Amino acid sequence: MKRLAVMLMAFTLIAGCAKKTETEQTAQQSATETAQKPQTTDQTKPSAPPMRPSDAKISVDSPTLAAGSKGSFGIHYHGVEPAKALVMPFKIPEGMTVDSVSFAGSMVDYLANKPVRIDNPQRLLLIGAVPVTEPKIPAEDGLLATVHFTLSADAKSGKIEESFAPPANYMSYVDTTNALVQPYFEAGTLTVQ
After folding, report:
1. How would you write the chain as a 3-class SS string?
2. Is the Cβ–Cβ distance between 165 and 91 less than 8 Å?
3. Which pTM value belongs to this model?
4. Distances from the Cα of 185 to the Cαs of 10, 15, 22, 26, 88, in angstroms?
5. Residue 98 near residue 116, CB atoms below 8 Å
6. Would you give the distance in Å from CA 41 to the centre of its chain?
7. Beta carbons of 144 and 107 less than 8 angstroms apart
8. For 118, phi and psi rounded to 5 degrees?
9. Could you give the CA distance from residue 161 to residue 94 in angstroms, rounded to a whole number?
10. Does the chain have fewer CB atoms within 10 Å around its N or its C terminus?
């Protein structure tokens, strides 16, 4: 039963990260917003499920570079218990285009399931890490991913912050009892010179 719950969460995350055409994204977003209107006060972000707070931490580097240039930033993890899955949705600053996400040299590089969804028009980046047959994500400190991006010529400074990614992705991890846990989040700041 516990394995089924983890597999269900993994399926939701992977389904949320599946690439869609702009038409499909627009249609899905409209349908999601319509379906959620009576249930939420903030129509873009439904109420988060109950989550246990944790001393685990996800933090983002604060890059500084010139408008019109390419750069990268790291996403880091401080684990306090083994995790069965990590879900990390981010809102990126205006003028930043995410080009790719690399797991090379990261603490989750060994995982086969590392779904990524990049939605630059919505300024959304969703990253997941889901052990299926591999060992759980260790309770260690380390790099989770490196995000490569390009700044537009008119890019401005802004936060790289926690977000919500439809259909049901919040900043969270799954502990060994299959409970959804909320890590502390430390935003990064893009400084455009």
Report:
1. CHHHHHHHHHHHHHHHHCCCCHHHHHHHHHHHHHHHHHHCCCCCCCCCCCCEEEEEEEEECCCEECCCCEEEEEEEEECCCCECEEEEEEECCCCEEEEEEECCCCCCCCCCECCEEEEHHHCEEEEEEECCCCCCECCCEEEEEEEEEEECCCCCCEEEEECCECCCECCEEECCCCCEEEEEEECEEEEEC
2. no
3. 0.77
4. 21, 24, 30, 29, 10
5. no
6. 23
7. yes
8. -110, 120
9. 12
10. N
- Give CA angle at 80 (76, 5), nearest 5°: 95
CA dist., res. 65 & res. 38, Å (int):
43
* pLDDT tens-digit map of 11-33: 445 545 444 333 334 333 433 34
Q: Over the stretch 46-82, which tens digit does the pLDDT of each residue have?
A: 677 788 888 999 999 999 999 999 999 999 999 999 9
Q: Please report, as a single letter, which amino acid is at residue 26.
A: T
Q: What would the pLDDT profile of 142-168 be if each residue is shown by its tens digit? A: 999 999 999 999 999 999 999 999 888
Of the candidates 115, 90, 107, 83, the residue with the CA atom closest to the CA atom of residue 181: 83
- For 41, residues 6+ apart whose C-beta sits below 8 A from its C-beta are none
The alpha carbon of 14 is separated from its chain's Cα centroid by a whole number of angstroms, namely 12
